[in-house]
Amino acid sequence: MKILNPSVELVTFTPNPERLIERMGRICYQSQHKVKVCEVCHGSGVVDDWKRCEACNGTETDISSAIKFVEMIKSNGHESVLEHPSASFSVICDRGVTHEVVRHRIASFSQENTRYCNYMKEVFGNEISVIQPPFSFPEKSIDDFIEAVEFAEKKYFKLLANGETPQIARSVLPTCLKAEIGVSANFREWRHFLKLRTSPKAHPQMIEIAEMIRKELLNISEVCFNDIPRISK
Prior knowledge:
The protein is α+β, with helices and mostly antiparallel strands. It contains eight helices and eight strands. It has helices spanning 17-29, 63-75, 95-101, 142-161, 166-169, 187-197, 204-220, 222-225; strands spanning 2-4, 7-13, 46-47, 51-52, 86-94, 108-111, 129-131, 178-186. The strands form three sheets. Strands 2-5-8-6 form a four-stranded antiparallel β-sheet. A hairpin with a 3-residue loop joins strand 3 and strand 4. The longest helix has 20 residues, at 142-161.
């Protein structure tokens, strides 16, 4: 049995999302004429493998113009415009957490399937992997946690050895089983996700995942997510 920490990997995202939001949002107000098209990047804001176009600096296409537009959109509650950019993550967490993640229905999911994954095979190291209990888990309970998981692993392997298929044997696997899930969503839905899943009322392990996702999203676009408060522990 292997114990893993939860993790998040940013797979892909919309480059320069603020410019896309401004470009699409100005359609609503028919104010496209306020954005001067750059002769280098032709209004995309990106050149050479999605690097920011430096020729835009100091013009109406400057990133500061787009940021101001996003701030205006947020203050007006016109968040439908934030649906144009998106981000995709690969998340490793326990299966209990994935059941909460998939409740965000305005998103796309691809999840590790225990019907077909046989953890007795070499590709999985001939063992199951589980997620480390949350930071709030009492140290005195660790031994009971490990004992319970090892017992589940033993019975899972015995069922497989007796000829049961993985989809039947999986019934005895614990909720803390490591699960990888791919999640793609637009920025509006990621904002909704963060508002719910970083709440003090959220499950501790969900908060861990949500805070990792928040960090990545802030690196992509601070202005799109900086108004969602971070909870204090």
